[in-house]
Amino acid sequence: MSGRLLHHWVDEAAARAPNVPAFRMRDDEITYERLARKSDQLAALLIEGGVRPGDRVGLYLNKSLETPVALFGVLKAGAAYAPLDPTAPMSRTAAVMRECGVRALITHEPKARAAETLLSTENLGDDFALVIGAAAPPAASLRAISWSALDAAPSLDEPDRTEDDIAYIIFTSGSTGAPKGITHTHRSGVAYALAAAELYEVSPDSRLSNHSPLHFDMSTFDYLSGPCAGACTVIIPEAYAMLPASMSTLIEQERFTHWYSVPFALIQLLEHGALDQRDLASLRWVMFGGEPFPAKYLRALRAHMPNATFSNVYGPAEVNQCTYHHVLQEDFAAETPPPIGKTWAIADGIQLDEHDAIMNTGSIGELAIASDTMMEGYWGRGDLNAKAFYTRIGDDGAKTKYYRTGDIVRDLGDGIYEFVGRKDRQTKVRGYRVELEEVESVISAVAGVSEAAAVIIEGASGSAEIASSFTAQMDDGDDLINRIQSAVAEKLPVYAAPAHLERIASFPRTTSGKIDRNAVARQFSIAKSEEAIAHAG
Q1: pTM, to two decimals
Q2: Looking at the chain, which terminus has fewer C-beta neighbours within 10 angstroms, N or C?
Q3: pLDDT grade, residue 175 (50/70/90)?
């Protein structure tokens, strides 16, 4: 075995501080000693069941204390884990399993019935041979093992692995709707865990809040950087996401030091979490990412979290993270979201124009990142890999590989980047270029508006039109609509003004908590179709 592997931290923490809790959930916890032992036992069962080095193992679990056991057990078996969305349709789950050729599936009692249906009704591919945590369907080739079998597992003979072996594959939606697997090695995972733990000052006395599900890349901070520092990670049950007041109570009771989520979760806490009744002084870091965060909410949150440093965390799942910006005094006073900041020490950023020429300081272009945290590539997708990377040749002939983020950024100087929009969300209306994120930013900044989403729909003449939905904190009727229209007229060119503006009760969301803009566009299209039918009648 050579190099640092992700699961080494668990064993080292178990030897150093065996009784320290590694993960907590509700009133239960698992110490580092028990996590090390249980993951050893699971790894032994996986190997005995036919899992070989380099195989992929699906994790089909709700949030639980079995999740870290499964994750580190797979790594100790020499395999790579593929976290599956437990809320996804079975057909999509099966497609992901087939895509990466999973050898085994790990589930548990809350998902056992769903797993059994999945195994009985879906074609999971010829390589699939083992399930842990669910009864097997009638198939002679499939072996089933219960979680209780861990106690009788043989001793672990850990296979030889290296830093360049695959550690995990996270699947995300592709532009065509088919899932694509982002493949990370132990090397990229270790680089991220160490850099994040250092940047956000994670230590053995830290208490991390695991808000994101395992199949969302934000969870790598909790599951990898936590053990890296010997910290305790508190797994937040899914139900708390719908109960902001309970969430804020949990923050107070568990004395979280680090919070990391999409902005929406913090906005929900602010608006419905009764923060004025909570003592949140334990929070040292409040980290957010995934979407722009309106400054007006940061100002309001700061009053309730007086000891926290707020930090904008930026980086696609393909690079884990690559830039950061610790929110400054002037950022709180601004009307626009804080910048995504500068690249951290282990990354390098460049901007590319539409012809792949490297741009100068002060320009606007696509951000490309070279980093030790960068993915190996998309699983089995040579076509995507050919488009995803840019190779820079230095004056000495040395080649450096960069990942094309697809994000358009403005270079503000001193290495600080400002997010402008997505390359694939830049659109044209009447021949003019429009960044939909800019439209959203203007609407979101209006007092009373909670969130906004701008999308492109087909107009009556077949031309593209901008439509925007928004949510609001209170119902002040036409007055709010008038304020939004005034802000749009003041800050956006005429061609960028939404042709359709609608208030809704809540946004459709992806499982990671981001606004599902495809669903928003569909809702507008359905509404327009119904309106056209009504007029025709």
Answers
A1: 0.84
A2: C
A3: very low
Name residues whose C-beta falls within 8 Å of residue 385's C-beta, 6 or more positions apart in sequence.
377, 378
Summarised one tens digit per residue, pLDDT across range 402-412 is 999 999 999 99
Strand partners, 173: 179
SS3 for 350-408 is EEECCCCCECCCCCEEEEEEEECCCCCEECCCHHHHHHHEEEEECCCCCEEEEEEEEEE
**27 contacts: CB under 8 Å, gap ≥ 6:** none
Q: What is the mean pLDDT of residues 102-124?
A: 93
β-pair partners for 467:
455, 500
Identity at 434, one-letter amino acid code: V
Q: Which one, of 345, 223, 212, 175, lies nearest residue 290 by Cα?
A: 212
Q: Determine phi and psi for 498, rounding to 5 degrees.
A: -60, 135
Q: What is the pLDDT of residues 516-532, one digit of tens each?
A: 998 998 888 766 655 54
Pick the residue with more confidence: 511 or 297?
Answer: 297
Residue whose C-alpha is closest to residue 444's, from 291, 226, 310, 329: 291
What pLDDT score was predicted for residue 1?
A: 45
Helices 244-254 and 263-272, interaxial angle, to 10°? 100
